[in-house]
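Renewal narrative, Specific Aim 1. Our central claim is that a sequence can be written position by position from structural information alone. The example that follows is taken directly from our test logs and has not been curated for this report. It begins with the structure tokens describing the chain, in the order in which they were read.
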């Protein structure tokens, strides 16, 4: 099962956010550019796990349209225990806004949990038919 978490930042300084996260998690990011994601910073934690810091608005399109007040997004992709990273980040960087966690089991289900009162609560579930 894959777990992915989306976080938001209420200001527009990707370099400052990247430095803060590097300091808190003791990891290094590298800058990348793509036609879809625009300029973003990526930290590969393992062959499958990564953290990406990117702009919410790229090429006249919103990544998270319901969160236009958050110009920068952080994605925790396929981490084994993303909840622990969320806790460390939000305790050390109080400006971070936790948006949601998604669990995906290929061809079985997709679940989305919204973050309320310090906990992830089931918001949406889709179960694939066999």
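The sequence written for that structure reads:
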């Amino acid at each position: 099962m894959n777990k992915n978490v989306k976080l938001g930042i209420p200001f527009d300084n990707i370099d400052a956010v990247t430095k803060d996260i590097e300091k808190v998690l003791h990891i290094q990011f590298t800058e990348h550019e793509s036609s879809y994601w625009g300029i973003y910073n990526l930290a590969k934690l393992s062959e499958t796990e990564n953290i990406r810091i990117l702009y919410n608005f790229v090429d006249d399109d919103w990544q998270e349209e319901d969160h236009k007040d958050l110009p920068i997004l952080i994605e925790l992709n396929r981490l084994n225990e993303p909840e622990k990273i969320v806790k460390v980040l939000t305790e050390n960087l109080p400006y971070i806004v936790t948006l949601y966690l998604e669990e995906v089991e290929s061809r079985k289900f997709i679940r989305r949990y919204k973050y309320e009162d310090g906990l992830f609560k089931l918001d949406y579930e889709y179960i694939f038919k066999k």
